[in-house]
Amino acid sequence: MPAALAPVLVGTALAAHLGRADLRAATLCLLFAGLIQIGTNFANDYFDYMKGADTETRVGPLRAVAAGWVRPEVMRRAMIWVFGAAFVAGLGLIAWGGPWLIMIGIASIVCGLAYTGGPWPLGYNGLGDVFVFIFFGLVAVGATYFVQAGALTIDVWLAAVPVGLLAANILVVNNYRDAATDALAGKRTLVVRFGLRFARAQFTGSLLVAGAMPVVFWARGFSAWCLLPLLLAPVAWQHARRLRKSRTPAELIALLGDTGKLLAAYAGLAAAGFVL
């Protein structure tokens, strides 16, 4: 869920920096993003089970359908209802951003379904990281800012980059843990395609870019408050070290949760910096 909260927080803070924050629009953005995240999780639960990726050999946290807690048809209906609710919530933003936002809503839902569903699922073909970066970074931050400020600037895109990269890092840890079982199931994530060393480099590189971005804002004339996310540098270094030294699924499950917390903390400090 931090992946849904973070871009809305950062986009709204940038709008507040210009005195244009609108809490009604921000709330609708948060509702839409949260429902998209939940719907995508439901879709992953359903489609991974149907495609045979979730079996008794799964090393990650139990999935509802695979564990027998929820019947597949019930999860499928829940997925449809949640995505439908997300679309309705997104319609409320037309009053601020115009009817073209419908295309973003449809694209978000389609990609949420296509991550593990459809004839060419994104997550099974190594494109999950790219689409997480785009939709939980560029699209979510940009759209949140646009519906409040009425325009897009270079600062918005710069602010979206670390959010998208840190959101993708959640996926990196998840796929790192599941590399062996994903390979057996034919799920060709980037980790499966290029190996664990590549995944560690991607994870660390994303942390470095996220750490550099506050300095970029400072160089662009923002006050020193924008450097607040640098307080997380020791935590980021520790995360990179933990990924490199992890040997068990339990260690990676713990790092997965902490990676989400790092994204939330980074977004909170970046937002505070923009407002201050």
Overview features:
276 residues; mainly alpha; 74% helix; 0% strand; 12 helices
What's the shape? globular
Summing up helix and strand content along with how strands pair, one would put the structural category as mainly alpha
Beta percentage is: under 5%
The overall strand count is 0
Q: Span between N and C termini?
A: 25 Å
Separate helix tally = 12
Could you give the order of the helices and strands? Answer: HHHHHHHHHHHH
Percent in helix:
over 70%
- Let me know the average pLDDT: 92
What is the rounded Rg? 19 Å
Total tally of structural domains: 1
Low-confidence stretches: none
Q: How would a textbook summarize the main sheet? A: none
Report on this structure.
With 276 residues, the protein is mostly helical. The chain has one domain. It contains twelve helices and no strands. The chain is globular. The relative contact order is 0.14. The mean pLDDT is 92.
Produce the secondary structure layout.
Blueprint: H1 2-17, H2 23-50, H3 72-91, H4 94-97, H5 101-114, H6 128-149, H7 154-177, H8 179-185, H9 190-194, H10 196-219, H11 233-245, H12 249-275
Helix pairs in contact: 1-2, 1-6, 1-7, 1-12, 2-3, 2-5, 2-6, 3-5, 5-6, 6-7, 7-10, 7-12, 10-11, 11-12
What's this model, at a glance?
The protein has 276 residues and is mostly helical. 74% of the residues lie in helices and 0% in strands.
